[in-house]
Amino acid sequence: MTIIAYQLYCSRNFPPVEDTLSMLAQAGYKAVEGYGGLYGDLDGLKAGLDKNGLTMPSGHFGLDMVEGDPSRTLEVARTLGVQKVIVPWVAPELRGTDLESWRAFAQRLASALKPIRDAGHAVGWHNHDWDFADLGGTTPMDLIVEAGLNLELDLGWVKRAGLDPVDTLRRFKGKVVAVHVKDIAPQGQNAQEDGWADVGTGIQDWAAIKKELDAQGIDHFVIEHDNPSDHARFARRSLEAVQAW
Question: What's the pTM value of the predicted model, to 2 decimals?
């Protein structure tokens, strides 16, 4: 069954989360993706999801939480029904700088996520553009996959990295457990939104991307915009675009 979710991080500048969940339900969403800043009030978040008929099949969890407190990570995942635990980002000082340091980071990431995987959850990494850096024939993304992890492939950041989303999906075939559906505005447009766009209004070739997603059986789509000026507009238009696929 296809999952079309909304990454709640898109609405971080439009509190409170209770209003966001209501807005999303009214727009027609059935699923969302969480992020670390929301997990402090676990009972409140769960109540809000239930009240609005929303599920949370995946969630973003910081490496500090996964590595430092795996029991809390599992508590959050179990309470909210999160099946896929994704580490989305690390601060620059924690990233690798060359082949060996990135390989060490990939192993650290895999070790941190092992207790979560052993507990029955799918685990993986969510990319930006800097993790496609050329390390001399390989990239941090390749090393993370070699360490045994799956990917939540952010197709917007793939494009921002100068890569083709379809080619990148093929490159990591069998390792992608979900995708972030994110569009990029034409050159010079949407500067107030950091150059991102509502899904279907930008430059991404969604017909070609969807064909490859179907070919690989990838059916978990997370709609995202890093800085929408109107999150309700973005949520509504983007869902309509993805549903039209």
Answer: 0.97
